[in-house]
Design goal:
- With 180 residues, the chain is α/β, with parallel strands linked by helices.
- The chain has one domain: 3-Layer(aba) Sandwich (Glutaredoxin).
- 32% of the residues lie in helices and 26% in strands.
- The protein contains 7 helices and 9 strands; from the N terminus they run E-E-H-E-H-H-E-H-E-H-E-E-E-E-H-H.
- The chain has a 5-stranded mixed beta sheet. Strands 1-2 form a two-stranded antiparallel sheet. The chain has a two-stranded antiparallel ribbon with strand order 6-7.
- The longest helix has 13 residues.
Length: 180
């Protein structure tokens, strides 16, 4: 499992932009020395992800930007058609959708789990991270990481918790340290 201080994995994402398939590498998306919030969830159109997590990050997007975040990305082990349809359905205009249909990024992050008990196959465990590209500054991982769990915890990866970290003394000290 990737942890704080590790570099984001380099993979290729297959996305849909303007009706065409495009391939983007991690470093094309997360530009070096820029700050991002990256969060991942089990699946598009699922209850917690649709009702709380994605809309919450969209709602607080401008607050994240005020704290120096360049952009927010939502990654899920879903294909680009599903991710784009989900964003459209929810009216998502600010948070960027990252389809990880093959699960390559999620596996490299150490967050790929089986959810075959729900008929989902391989999916991402719920996590959020603050990235000072290419490095992971802070990881928020829901408790109970395992295959085929019946619970879907949503305690530490909510947008309010991530925003509170960005406003914390711990993060201010981190920012001062990297500028010296």
């Amino acid at each position: 499992m990737r942890k704080e201080g590790d570099v984001l994995p380099t993979v290729q994402f297959v996305l849909r932009e303007n009706g065409e398939f495009v391939t983007r590498r991690t470093e094309d998306i997360f530009i070096n020395e820029k700050k991002y919030v990256l969060f991942s969830l089990p699946g598009a159109f699922t209850p917690t992800c649709t009702s709380y997590q994605l809309p919450g990050f969209e709602e607080l997007y401008d607050e994240f930007i005020k704290e120096g975040i360049e952009d927010i990305y939502c990654v899920s082990v879903n294909d680009a058609f599903v991710m784009n349809a989900w964003a459209k359905e929810l009216g998502i205009e600010k948070v960027k959708m990252l389809a990880d249909g093959n699960g390559y990024f999620t596996r490299a992050m150490g967050q790929l789990v089986l959810k075959s008990n729900l008929g989902f196959g391989q999916r991402s465990w719920r996590y959020a991270s603050v990235v000072d590209s290419p490095n992971i500054v802070k990881m928020f991982v829901e408790p109970g990481f395992a295959d085929n769990v019946s619970e879907d915890p949503y305690e530490v990866t909510n947008p309010e918790n991530v925003l509170n970290y960005l406003r914390s003394e711990e993060y201010k000290i981190f920012k001062e340290d990297i500028h010296h």
